[in-house]
Each structure stands twice: as structure tokens, then as C-alpha cells.
Amino acid sequence: MKVLFPGTFNPFTIGHKNIVDRACSLFDNVVIAVGVNSEKHPDAKSSASAVDSIKRIYKDNQKVEVIGYSTLTAQVVKEMGIDFIIRGIRNSKDLDYENEITRVNYTVFGVETLYMLADPKLKEISSTVARELHKYGVEI
Fold it and tell me: How much is the pTM?
């Protein structure tokens, strides 16, 4: 089975890596899909940079594929013949946000989403916090 792990990954954190690594033990293939989001990635160039850096992390893992996309996530799932979307959940705020998207993906496209709870040691890590720390020169 094949699963899609979508996000902007700006930046790709150890929390994201933890979800991918755990998903690799459950699925035959994990596709990390870096989406273009004008609020997080101002342009396709920075999205392409994220794709390249994530590819380097998984260069020796044959189960992981990294792609960029700028369409609806559910469209990528359908086009690539992927079985599920997987999302990491850190807290109730994440769950509320993801539930809205999950309902649309299922109702409109028939795409199932599976949730993985964040590792408790990593649940406080977010890309937003990582970006803010980096902005002010804090080593991350």
C-alpha cells in the first residue's frame, strides 16, 4: 500500500521525519508531497528547495518518494493511485483543522485520511515555531 504525506514542510522538522519513519514501517511506499502555499512558501522556488532537502534526507530509503505539487492534495492521490493520506496530529487544534480537510477529501473525492499521533517527545515542535526561531538566528 502507498500513502501520501502532504504538507508545505517549511521547514521539514524532526516531527515530520518521525511520522514518515513510522509510516515506512506500516506502508510499502510513502510519498512526501511538498505543496505550494502562498502563506508558507511564497513561491514555487522555495517549495522546490524543500523537495530537494527532503530528498537528501531520504536518499537511501527506497520506500520514500518526494514530490512537489500545486494542485489539490486529493487530486495527487487520485492521479498517483495512492491508497491513503496520512497526517500527523500534535494536539486538538491540529485535529480540528485536519478534520475539516479530511471530510472534504472523503466527501468530494472518496479519499481516506489516516491520523498518526505525534511522538509525545516531539509534539511541541511545529514548522511555525522553527521558522520563527530561525528568523531570529536561533540554531534549529
Answer: 0.85
